[in-house]
Amino acid sequence: MDFVQCPRGLQPGMIEPREAAVACAVRSGLVLLVILFAVGTSGCGKSPEEQKAAAAEHKAQTTGRLVVKSNHANTTVEATRLPTGSETSPASVNGVTDGALEHTLSGLPPGKYSVMARSDGWPELKQETNVSAGQTTEVAVNFKSGSLRLNSDPTGATVRLGANTLGQTPLVIPQLPLGECKLTLAYPSWPAVTFQTTITENVEATATVRLPHGKLTVQTTPPGATVLLGGRAVGQTPLTLERVSAGTRKLTLQAKDFPALELSVTVEDRGEVKISPALGSAFPVLDPEALLRAVWVPDDPNRLAPPLEGLNGPFQSQNGIVKNLNRKRVYEVWLRKQYCFTGAVKAYDPASGQIEFAEQKGELCRYRVLAKLTPAARSNRELSALLTKGATFALYGRLTAVEEPRWPSKMITFEISSVEPLR
Predict the structure, then answer these.
(1) Backbone phi, psi, residue 185, to 5°
(2) Cα(251)–Cα(163) distance, rounded to whole angstroms?
(3) The sheet that has 247-254: what strands, in order across it?
(4) Taking CA 168 as the corner, what is the angle to CA 163 and CA 170, rounded to the nearest 5 degrees?
(5) Where exactly are the structural domains of the chain?
(6) 212-221, 250-259, 299-308, 395-404: which range is least confident on average?
(7) What are phi and psi for residue 7, nearest 5 degrees?
């Protein structure tokens, strides 16, 4: 049998048990309806968007906003709440003023804040302000500055303040920090130059910075070589460069049929340098004694050997004499290549253009060098006047023959053709 709690005020026996149960159920249902109605009207029926908006409204009413306005772009702002009493300082809030020169820090707990503003190359600015719940506080950050009208010699130098690029000269810089100011000027492929000046508030200073440079003239023999300065082609010879950065500069000269010639020149500020290199000097130096050591075949020096069997065609000797030289190796490694050579003149024949240099005594044998000028070089009267006996003459040309002597001569002959002078 179920036990039923009677309504308050009814005594057992006053009503039937079943009637008492019905009365209790009715009264309990009414209470439940009241509870459900109260819960439904308390917010459980709101959409997520409505609940989010209510939370944002609550936060806006209990926190404040800080708007920092700066007169300088790209300012980093840091706001730190100052603790009161036994409070510990919370984490600071950071922001950056972009091109709009303004940044808003939202959701700040009420209280007093220390605001720090920084910009690269400028002194830090610091001030305090109060943030109130439900309100917006504005702070103005003004970096005191002066201006500079800057030029350079040569113009077109890139100007930097710290890591910031300000532009190219001629340049007006409207805002610079007060006091000693260091700027860096860099011209393409030139070393950077540091310029220091004093900036006064609301005053425009003027300056022209000279990037140290001088003048360079390059003439080559023959002309028409491409000049590379710092790896960049700047023209063909004959060439005059009015502005070359001071210091030691590396030049590369390039011309058809010549190996690249690399040179170093030292340019002084306000100075002028003239060079006249011969492109042929880039060819390897002909060293007859070293060549002979590399191809020498030991033999009886008192006996002339007949031509080696099967040695014909390009390897064959012009005069048919094969004694101590490995002619195949001579042909494959040395002949038909360009060399430069310097020696003492023994005789010169203007009619044929042939120069005979003084004989040399090496550890293996005696040798001499014969050289034949090109028709253009032979027609140069000034050159002919220099080819006197005993004069030192430098040339470049193609090695065309290395010949062993007929009896009784014991002198190896080197022949160089298409010879041009090295000046």
Answers:
(1) -115, 130
(2) 32
(3) 232-236, 226-229, 247-254, 261-267
(4) 135
(5) 1-45, 62-141, 145-210, 213-282, 288-421
(6) 299-308
(7) -60, 150
pLDDT in tens, 166-201: 999 999 998 888 899 899 999 988 999 999 999 999
Which band of pLDDT confidence, cut at 50, 70 and 90, is reported for residue 2?
very low
Give 100's pLDDT tier (boundaries 50, 70, 90).
Answer: low
Report d(CA 221, CA 395) in Å as an integer. Answer: 12
CATH topology (fold) of 145-210? Immunoglobulin-like (2.60.40)
* pLDDT confidence of residue 225: 97
Are 414 and 402 in contact by the 8 Å Cβ rule? The answer is yes
pLDDT digits (tens, 9 = 90+) for 3-32: 444 444 444 444 454 554 444 444 544 444
Q: What confidence score (pLDDT) does residue 189 get?
A: 82
Rounded distance, CA 75 to CA 67, Å? 13
Rounded distance between C-alpha atoms, residue 230 and residue 243, angstroms: 14
- Domain 62-141: what homologous superfamily? Carboxypeptidase-like, regulatory domain (2.60.40.1120)
**Which pTM value belongs to this model?**
0.63
Whether residue 393 contacts residue 354, with contact meaning beta carbons closer than 8 Å, is answered with: no
In contact, 275 and 237? CB cutoff 8 Å: no
Residue 258 has pLDDT above 70, yes or no: yes
Q: Rg for the chain (alpha carbons), in Å?
A: 49
- Tell me what the mean pLDDT of segment 214-232 comes to: 94
Token pair 């050579």 in the structure block, residue: 341
The pLDDT value given to residue 198: 94
Cα–Cα nearest to 207, from 230, 234, 231, 182: 182
Do domains 145-210 and 213-282 share one topology? The answer is yes
What pLDDT does residue 309 have?
Answer: 52
CA distances for 273 relative to 224, 244, 268, angstroms: 19, 10, 8
Which CATH fold would you assign to the domain 288-421? Answer: OB fold (Dihydrolipoamide Acetyltransferase, E2P) (2.40.50)
Element (H, E) at 195: strand 193-199
Task: Specify the pLDDT at position 39.
Answer: 44
- At 359 the pLDDT is 95
Residue 204 pairs in a beta bridge with: 147
Query: What letter represents residue 330's amino acid?
Result: V
- Torsion over CA of 65, 69, 75 and 76, rounded to 10 degrees? -20
Q: Does domain 213-282 have CATH number 2.60.120.10?
A: no
How is residue 171 written in tokens?
């340049």
- DSSP state for residue 314 in the 8-state scheme: G
